Amino acid sequence: MRRRPRSRPRSRPRSRPRSRLRLPVALFTVLATVATVAACDGGVHGTPGASGLRDPYFPKLGNGGYDVGHYALDLDYDPDTHHLSGTAEITATAGKALSAFNLDLRGLTVREVTVDGEKAVASRAGREVTVRPHDELPEGHTFRATVRYDGEPVTITDPDGTGEGWLRTADGALGLGEPTGSMAWFPGNHHPSDKATYDIRVTVPVGVQAVSNGELRRTKRSSDGRRTAYDWRMRQPMASYLATVAIGKFETERGRTPAGIPVYTAVDPDEAKASAKVLARLPEVLDWEAERFGAYPFSSTGAIVDRAGDVGYALETQTRPVFPVAPDVGLLVHELAHQWYGDSVTPKSWRDMWLNEGFATYAEWLWDEEHGGDTARQTFEAIMKRPASDGVWAFPPAEPPNAAHLSDSPVYERGAMVLQKVREAIGDTKFSALLKSWPTDHKYRCADTDDFTAYVERKNPGKGEALAGVWETWLYGNGKPESAS
Ligand code: TRP
Ligand code: ZN
User: Fold this and answer.
1) Whose CA is nearest to atom 11 of ligand 1?
2) Whose CA, among 43, 64, 136, 391, lies 20 to 30 Å from 297?
3) Could you give phi then psi for residue 107, rounded to 5 degrees?
4) How far does residue 335's CA lie from ligand 1's centre (Å)?
């Protein structure tokens, strides 16, 4: 089985290089010195929380001063009118004494905000909602902010031209959040560094269903018999870009992996036939990955196959990845691998995205290697044959030039090449151990590139010099490396 990611544009168009432009070195230097976001978890009294976390690619994304622990979302959507009304109950802890704090929300109208049950003043400037609670929030105080909002949710065009946020489908809608789309359907701290648990209730007209992350706890018909509420619960921490809601008609199926993880799949009837065979392999793929990457970190798994307009990419939404059409096995391997690399251990900022995509791509290489296909080394060598002008060499995986290039092939394929070079530096045994221990030791948390390189060095004393060479040439080096060895 010989596959190259580029031969599957419909499955992963985002990994296609968009430009061969090489940016001046000076720009990389500037990016490298921009302050990065704080650690994964979230003074003097009475100061407002920051309106952004200074992500190098999306500076206004997320908010400072508090850390969300739980979102309880209660959404009501009607595909005919395209109207969404919602209540978001956000439980958060103040990291410092707060006179005000911000929430990210795009489009939609805020109707009312309360904090700990008391009416708060909310003001709006574009995507920033500033909430001024009746009483100041003391440092360390856990509070509950309740936001009532509604409107017609918007589709966001990414810096690279693709769609995310709220997408309409033939029979409903799909909420997708990477990298900034979740603010199109609920207010919150929409930076990957603030993870939280979720209860997501979606009420829809009878005749359509609603599917989300985690486990379906119950469904309830309204007293007039015209609407159904679907209650989903995601009990392990999740970054907001990994939340999803799929509304429409689906063929759903439940099962269990051989290791006992509950499976729930929801497939657009038009894609049901094409999806049946590959989704039947999901339990096998998940258990294979659990053997390679360590115990599966979540309490259920599955998949959503749903077509939203011309969205042609898959997304590793937590527990239940979304595919625009029936995936092939390689893409299934990729999105399920993200459950460890990206979902359980999440990037501290969007600069660290190669940690998601490099690992998920490497998982495909490993799958091929162990299923009668090319070895990872052969896949690596095939990429080395590409000319120096190829997009894969356009920039170092750890330093995408700007947000428009976050999903280009250096982040995916060259990210995976970094891992192949790590494997060759430390040997197969230590590399297998690393594939497990990296996500296990950072389970439900966040990590950045420096955390990763320091971790690999710590776990492999004596290999410091070889690893330094890998970082310099493969992770941070500009252009095509001269030799593959
Ligand atoms: N993470 C997705 C994958 O590899 C691709 C993707 C979807 C993406 N939306 C994105 C990548 C936004 C970067 C930015 O399967
Ligand atoms: Zn991916």
Assistant:
1) 407
2) 64
3) 65, -160
4) 10
